[in-house]
Amino acid sequence: MVEYRIDRHSGVATYVQLVQQTKQALRLGLLRPGDKLPTAREVVEATAINPNTVLKAYRELEREGLVEARRGLGTFVRRGLGSAPADSPLRTELEQWAARAREAGLDRDDVAALFTDVLDKHFQGDPS
Length: 128
Hints:
Blueprint: H1 14-27, H2 40-47, H3 51-63, E1 67-70, E2 74-77, H4 89-103, H5 108-122
Antiparallel strand pairs: 1-2
């Protein structure tokens, strides 16, 4: 199950953070088709956000065909995304790289800028 974390200082709308975190869990294989998302009440209790915000995020995910709401049962994953499982050897390499970057004195924003620059270089024109 996905555990949502809200960064109130990010400047990103709360419902967008929920959508992004759900998609990340789908890409990493942490959520799979048939899995049930937490109820709006569970998300509200864990994050102290408005229930309508959760419902808006779930509607967006449903509009994208990633989840489906089943009346009286909850919201369930319809399909996964990507092919980057959480236990991928590439993840291990990336974790080692991130640890080296931190040891070198880079902060989160430095690492994000560097990583984004490399992504842009290697995935230029990629629609995903």
